[in-house]
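Q: Now give one record:
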Amino acid sequence: MPLRVLSEETSLLSQILAELRNQKLQKDRQRFRWNLKRAAFILAYEISRQLPYVPAEVATPLAQAQVHVLAEPPVLISILRAGNAFLEGAMEAFDFADVGFVAAYRTELTNREVQVQVDYLAVPPLEGRRVILMDPMLATGRSILLSYEALLLRGRPKELFIMALIASEFGLKAVQKQLPHAHLFVGAVDKELTAKAYIVPGLGDAGDLAYGALH
């Protein structure tokens, strides 16, 4: 399952996406962050269905119960800064997961040729582990690709999951071309990407809407 687009089937995520896109509701910053968190929990749950589980036994107050538990927890990696509200939802799904952070931001832009700089990396060892790399907006794909390249300094993951709320067709193709082994879980895919690399219709700048404008 290299690509899963949740909006192709109606679910609670459809309602959450509608609220996140609504510019009137976006004025409520707390509600925007809350919806990012809710959307991330749903996406993380869908990823959890693709992870390996092992049988186990636990003691209830009355008897032993046969259960299934995750074979190993994934590592959650947030691309700063919009990824942090997203991360909160994923952490509620995987409350026992290790967490890492990578900063990737634009430095130049010329007709979709986005120059992205990665200058902060704080992640646990990744060799042979399952990694979920998350960013709410997958526009050109450069942030995802360069962040993953930086993560390799901490080891090569056994399996890579990429989680995004909204992706552009352009960015998805770029990521799929460079990381054909990655599993992509996205809320919705939008067709247009502007010359300034904004997804249309998208929802605007997720980082600014969640935490305030930097410019």
In short: The radius of gyration is 18 Å.
